[in-house]
């Protein structure tokens, strides 16, 4: 039994910035296990990452949608395990050429990154399953990539409204086998935090175990 695997459980508050990449060839070596976070601009992706890692400054948050323009990699305490913050998609005030460039390089990462073991799709519970969200769900289904849905900003709704919204999302996602987790989440109240961390740990440790077998 490898003692390193038994001694070091994944600690999300160990997350540290590793590198930013604008293109696939600037990414870290394609080994180990990564889970990437995607989401439409202003869906709360950076806030979710900061809450999950118990580090309010890990991912930059901004009231200006589309602030994340690079693929940002964060290392964890287990060697080879990383979290990845993908560029926000949406209505950032940038040129069409720049948007097209982002999407092209994002597509390269999603299609060619072999160590990508799961995708966390962050969506605002009040405005779920946008065109971008559906595109990401379809992509994961086609590529058999495990998907976690974080329905963020749940604190913005009364609990009954939030539950109704979750039921509606679940109904629309029922045909998709790739969806392994659907979690009501709030960076403010920490709702869904432990469930999210447990699911991420399962993905990363399962991928690492499979690699070592």
From TrEMBL:
Residues 34-153 form the G domain. One of its GO terms (molecular function) is metal ion binding. Its cofactor is Mg(2+). Keywords: Cell cycle, Cell division, GTP-binding, Magnesium, Metal-binding, Nucleotide-binding, Septation. GO terms for cellular component: cytosol. Pfam families: MMR_HSR1. GO terms for biological process: division septum assembly. Belongs to the TRAFAC class TrmE-Era-EngA-EngB-Septin-like GTPase superfamily. EngB GTPase family. Necessary for normal cell division and for the maintenance of normal septation. HAMAP family: GTPase_EngB (MF_00321). This is Probable GTP-binding protein EngB. It comes from Marinobacter salinexigens.
